[in-house]
Amino acid sequence: MAHETIPLTAREAASGLLGSVSMTCWIFLLVPQLIENYRNGNAEAISLLFVFVWFVGDIANLAGGLMAGLVPVIVAIAVYFCIADGVLIAQCLYYKARTREPAHRRRSSTETPDPTTPLLGRRFSDSLQESRRRSSGSQRGHQGRRESQVEDTLAKIVEENDFGRKAWFKNFASVVGIFVIGMAGWTMAWQTGMWEPAPIESNNPSDEATGGLVLGYFSALCYLGARLPQIYKNYSEKSCEGLSLLFFILSLLGNLTYGAGILFHSTEKEYFLTNLPWLIGSLGTMFEDVIIFIQFRIYAAQEPQPSAVI
Question: How far apart are CA 56 and CA 207, in angstroms?
């Protein structure tokens, strides 16, 4: 039996676009940090408490969204949240199990770096230099010089991509790409009939809606508290080294479009109150992300600057 099609308004189109962009942010959110952890060979920069509380909040968010009858895109995002959290937690636990070296010994190897080495490329350069020293004793001649040139080139690429203007250009290009992919995805879904405006009214019984709200507020509390251990960890170590700035940029953008997508769908009182915990969880954490951005700036400025080459 065919159902009545809900007309597409400008606000509903904006809600769909923003929801799709938010979904794209969450799909790619963990990729920069997973790559950063893999390149460093550890996940020491990430607070496990941060990730664990975030994971608990995502589980409550998913359960609450299902019970409250939220729009499908929000439920889909909540499902992916849980999957992505599991991947990051698994990686962090793997590196912690593999490297149980005390923190003071681990930090001592990076306290006196070569002042001419760009800050964000130290670990990669150090590992390349170490491998070069090991290979120099057994390989000589033209092949050794060739490998050395390749390693220098790789180090230069990593350092240039993660330092200064190159890093900002990479992050900006990534954000533009997220918008393009998200908007293209929504357009294709709408054109093919896979997406249509969702009704504002909820058909869920009142007891399920109330239970969903309770879980929603609990998830919002977890989201607001999850970043506090990471902020404190950055503050106590006076460093954000090992954290991916793009990870937090995508988090901020995802939360912004997530909350805006809800508000564009409707601002009626009943709908607003139903979605209030999810608005608190998404828009509220943006303030904490800004604090982490400030930490990136402050602690990068405190690091010794590379000496000028004369």
Answer: 23
Predicted confidence (pLDDT) per residue in 87-112, tens digit: 999 999 999 888 765 555 555 444 44
* Alpha-carbon 58 to chain mean position: 14
User: Which segment, 49-53, 129-133, 148-152, is predicted with the most confidence on average?
Assistant: 49-53
- CA 186 to CA 161: how far, in whole Å? 31
Amino acid at 66: L
SS3 annotation, 29-91: CCHHHHHHHHHHCCCCCCCHHHHHHHHHHHHHHHHHHHHHCCCHHHHHHHHHHHHHHHHHHHH
Domain boundary assignment for the chain: 10-109+173-302, 119-161
Question: How far is 134 from 136, CA to CA, in rounded Å?
Answer: 6
Burial of residue 160 (number of CB atoms within 10 Å: 0-12, 13-18, 19+): middle
Among residues 32, 14, 52, 42, the alpha carbon closest in space to that of 187 is found at 14
CB-based contact 161:170 (threshold 8 Å): yes
259-293 pLDDT, tens digit each: 888 888 777 888 788 788 878 888 889 999 999 99
Q: Taking the CA of residue 241 as centre, how many other CA atoms within 13 Å lie in the half-sphere pointing to its CB?
A: 21
